[in-house]
Every structure is written in C-alpha cells, then in structure tokens.
C-alpha cells in the first residue's frame, strides 16, 4: 500500500486555544512504527512539545507544505490503547472538558512530560561475520564464551539481565567490547503499563431452567418489551 497518512495529534497543553487536533507529517523512518495512542515529540511554534497520536488521516485541510514532521517517538508502545480512544470525544462532550483533560485520565501516572528519561545499556553482538568472530574468540575464558553464547540465542539484552543469566561480571562485558566482539548501546527504557493482560474467561453454560427463562425473556423483548417476574431466593443467580 502506498497510501499516505498524516498524524492527528493532541498537544499536551491545557489551553482552550489549543483544544483541537493538529496534523503532522510522518517521516519515512517512522512510518512502520506510528500507532494510535503513541506519545510523540513535535515542533510547536518556537518550541518542542509532547503530544498524543489521536488519529491517522488520509485527507486533511492543511496545505502539505505547511506540515511539520514528527520529531521523535517517545515510547515503544502506545500509552493509550486504541479501544480507549473513542472515550476521549465522549468525555469531552459529556463533561465539557478539553481533549487533553480526557487523555490525561487514560494515560498511566508517571509518564507525563518533564519525567526524566531512563536509559539502560543493551548489549549486542558485533556486526562481524562468523569467520571474523571465530578468530577473535580464541583464548576466551568461560564467562566470555557464556556471554557470547547467550547473545547468539537472543541478541540485544540489557546488561543487568545478561550478567544475571550468565553469571559473568562487568569486567567481562568491558573485555569483550575491547576485543570488538560485542557493542554496547544506550537505549531509553520505559515500564509498559499494559504488560498485564487479564486472562480470558469462558462463557457461562446455562442449565435447562436458565435457558427456558432466557428464551421467555427474549420472546417478550422481541415483541417490544414487558414485565417479567423471576422467582428464586436471593443470590441464586437470577
């Protein structure tokens, strides 16, 4: 698909004058990463501000030469789940609030702007081919070999996790880096507020009496409604 989409963004500023959707161009290197609900940094006036991707639109009323590019994707996952986005205009209309006020009710605490970015060191295998790497692996101790073996199974591992999994020390990481066998990258890290997913529940199986009751109620409702009396003791599942 060659369809071009533009990001409709709600600016994270509590001002009635800014209570609308602002459209931005999606740079080519971000096109495969942009999702609804993501937090991004965008140019706004003479500054850079935080915003949330509220919509992805093909047709916009702004001249394309006036569009500015999104500067940065701040998280690797959406802070607002897509199925919660319809709540935003509903809350705006129901409670007479601004779009950003509704969004702030849906965003996990601790993720607002001015929160200092947290980084971690992540270890990757060097980009050498296998023959070059095997030549460099001569005279390696057991801990060095364990680190390389772990990275061959799963590349791009945070240094703390790698040391915990292999029993190696920090000096092992530094020695491997000096030999050119691994590379150390500094990457931003965020807690994923949606990591927990509740387990799926099974549909309740009704007994014969419940099925008869449901059939009777459904028949009355299909005729336009009416009064139904359910007999049974309190807490019996009526």
Give structural notes.
The protein has helices at residues 87-95, 99-106, 130-136, 142-153, 159-166, 170-178, 208-222; strands at 6-11, 22-25, 39-44, 47-57, 72-73, 119-125, 157-158, 182-188. The protein has 238 residues and is α+β, with helices and mostly antiparallel strands. The chain has a 5-stranded antiparallel β-sheet with strand order 2-1-4-3-5. A 3-stranded antiparallel β-sheet has the order 7-6-8. A hairpin with a 2-residue loop joins β3 and β4. α1 (87-95) packs across α2 and α4 (142-153) crosses α5 (159-166). It is flat. The mean pLDDT is 84.
Total beta strands = 8
Spatial shape:
flat
Radius of gyration: 27 Å
> Roughly what percent helix?
25-40%
**Largest sheet report:** 5 strands, antiparallel
**Strand composition percent:** 15-25%
Number of DSSP helical runs? 7
How are the strands of the largest sheet arranged?
2-1-4-3-5
Which regions have little confidence, pLDDT < 50, spanning 5+ residues?
A: none
Descriptors for this entry?
238 residues; alpha+beta; 3-stranded antiparallel sheet; 7 helices
Summarize the structure.
The protein has 238 residues and is α+β, with helices and mostly antiparallel strands.
